[in-house]
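Next comes this protein.

***
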Amino acid sequence: MSSETFDVVVIGSGPGGYVCAIRAAQLGLKTACIEKDNTLGGTCLNVGCIPSKALLSVSEKFAHAEHDFAGLGIDVGKPKLDLKKMMTHKDKVVASNTQGISFLFKKNKVTHIVGTGSITAAGTVEVSGKDGKKTISAKNIVIATGSESTPLRGIEVDEKQIVTSTGALALDKVPASLAVIGGGVIGLEMGTVWQRLGTKVTVIEFLDRVLPGMDGEVSKEMKKILAKQGVEFKLGTKVTGAETKKGKVTLTLEPANGGAAEKLEVETVLLAIGRRPYTAGLGLEKAGVTVDNRGMVQIDEHFQTSVPGIYAIGDVVRGPMLAHKAEDEGVVVAEIIAGQSGHINYDCIPGVVYTAPEAASVGKTEEQLKEAGIPYKAGKFPFMANGRARAMAATDGFVKILAHAETDRVLGCHIVGPEAGTLIAEVVAVMEFGGSAEDIARICHAHPTLNEVVKEAALAVDGRPLHI
């Protein structure tokens, strides 16, 4: 047993954890980051955000070459898929990013400790690693252990035929058929990767719509576009069982509201019904840290748990399970620990679905505004009417801006279309500064750009779009 003392010890090196550690070190605090895996970056960089975007990008290019190039005057014949090379590209991207964090840790003098961290008491963390156990003393502890795939009763994951997003990123062949259980972000992203490569994809969603947390019009538009691309949907449907036999998986499906069961036989199943906080082995109960019935660590407005000196951020606490939300929380916590004040506005955290086209949202949906009784005006403009989108042959979708009916303050923005994840940033910035739809409308946007659709949607709030 050995002991070492730090000002801040972060448990978990995902986006929230590693950013928190770097910021704490920048502020002059002696900082360590504990990670149970051999590589840094957590789920996001290793088996989540980064590798999935690599496959999404490559598979989108493949689909363009197969279906769109000829119509644009580029004759390349039928493209041939080399899945092994595609996976090698994905692995290189992951390695580059995880190695980048190692470099940043060294640059900022963050101590990287490999092992599993367990909080034995306030100010004390026990690390179990390949060389045994050691005790670390910490004036402040930050829990940043992220989340894991939510299981479903009756569905046994083997990461070969029945996979989570982790297994879906590493299939060794293109399956003939894939059933995606869950019509949320992960399900649609990974489903479209394999659909583009030739898989028959069926998305099964318990609710009556895909992307249930997003604006209703976004949900409807995305289903229409993806169905046109070849994805099949079974909405209002629940999966009650799965039987694996002779290289096939037979799912038992039932209507969510009751009714006769049916069978669906596929080669591979992706379980993507959501994620839950990962706190296994942390010793939270022993340390006295309060956790709710969903496994979420309870925190106050300063991210401190029920135990003074122990903080929590990211997927283990309330709010959207998004990497950038965790990063911002990591910065805020580090600054609070250093005696400064941090800032995060949960009404201005964008969410993006990286399908093709992308979908992006920030702020309130129309449904939320109606439920809250907030008077609002909506301005909507289609990409079909935008010159740059036409030039790119990417005209699906729209931008919709929601503004307060009396003050014109922007309350939300919802986009389906090319580069939606990038376009949403302009509206996020305006919302952070309490800006109005008119502010966006009066900003000079370069022509021809996709950003002009955002401007036109802002003009449409006042009923005066120029190009439709």
